[in-house]
Design goal:
The structure is a single chain. The protein has 4 helices and 7 strands. About 35% of the residues lie in helices and about 30% in strands. It has a single domain, classed as Glutaredoxin, CATH 3.40.30. The protein is of the alpha+beta class and about 140 residues long. Helix 1 packs parallel to helix 4.
C-alpha cells in the first residue's frame, strides 16, 4: 500500500491556538477522513502528522503557522495558489499570519475542499508512478516454457 502523508503545523501557546488555526484543524480532519475513505480502496493510505510551533519559532517566521504539506509538497503548489498574510488574533497577537490565495479568494481558514483537491492530485501522481513491486517477477504459465 502506498502512503500519502499530510502534515499540518501551527502555533500552540499555553495549549491554545488562534481561531483560524483551530478552524483549519477541523477542516484538516474532515479532509483526511474524506481522503481516507476515497483512497483506501485504491491502495493509498493517508496519514496525518501535526506539529506544534513554539512561540520562539513563530516569532521568527509567523508564515510557518497554519501551513500544510500534501505528499511532501506545500499545499499551495498542488493548487497553483499564493501565500499571503493578514493580521491574526489570540495567541498570535497582532502578527501577520499565513493566508492562502486560491481561485480568486483569500482564505484565513483552509477549507477541506482545497485540501481534498490537493490530496487527489497527489494521489493521482502516486497512481501514475507506483513503487517497484519489490522484485516480484511476472508469473509465466507452463506453456511459456
Amino acid at each position: 500500500m502506498q502512503t500519502l502523508p499530510i502534515k499540518w503545523q501551527r502555533l500552540v501557546y499555553d495549549s491554545q491556538t488562534c481561531s483560524r488555526c483551530e478552524a483549519t484543524g477541523q477542516e484538516v480532519q474532515k479532509a483526511v477522513t474524506a481522503l481516507r475513505q476515497s483512497l483506501n480502496p485504491l491502495g493509498i493510505r493517508v496519514t496525518l502528522e501535526t506539529e506544534e510551533l513554539d512561540p520562539a519559532t513563530f516569532a521568527r517566521d509567523p508564515s510557518q503557522s497554519n501551513r500544510l504539506w500534501v505528499g511532501g509538497l506545500p499545499l499551495e503548489e498542488w493548487l497553483g495558489a499564493q501565500v499571503g498574510q493578514s493580521p491574526c488574533c489570540g495567541p498570535c497577537g497582532d502578527a501577520e499570519c499565513r493566508t492562502l490565495e486560491a481561485q480568486g479568494q483569500t482564505y484565513e481558514t483552509i477549507p477541506a475542499a482545497l485540501i481534498i483537491k490537493a490530496g487527489l492530485r497527489a494521489a493521482s501522481q502516486l497512481l501514475d508512478n507506483p513503487p517497484p513491486s519489490g522484485g516480484a517477477k511476472p508469473r509465466m504459465d507452463r506453456s511459456d516454457g
